[in-house]
Amino acid sequence: MQDINIKITDRNGVTHDVVAPTDMAMNLMEVVRSYELAEEGTIGICGGAAMCASCQCYIESDHQLPEMSDDEDAMLAEAFDVEDNSRLGCQIQITTEINGLEVVLAPES
């Protein structure tokens, strides 16, 4: 396995180039939390169960991500500040296929 690079723009508009491991079964929300790119208690509130939308982000790069699950789709249907490129970070697994991914964290709801 290998590490990948992800570009994450935080809620203050600051872009961070982060390195994420592909061998730890992490998701994007967990990477954001591990790098402390969002205030504690404002992201991943439900623990990654696609039940709160606190980890909503906007996909800015052209990556082919796995199709959205029904749970993720339903949660985004109820969330604030949803855009066409919105996804839940907890539903995006860190894999080599997303190397170079660029995301912007959605505003805190």
TrEMBL record:
SUPFAM superfamilies given in the database record: 2Fe-2S ferredoxin-like
The keyword Iron is annotated on this UniProt entry: yes
Sorted UniProt keywords: 2Fe-2S, Iron, Iron-sulfur, Metal-binding
Pfam families linked: Fer2
Domain 2Fe-2S ferredoxin-type: 36-94
Domain of life per record: Bacteria
NADP as UniProt keyword: no
PANTHER family, sorted: FERREDOXIN/ADRENODOXIN, TRANSFER PROTEIN, PUTATIVE-RELATED
Record's protein name: 2Fe-2S iron-sulfur cluster-binding protein
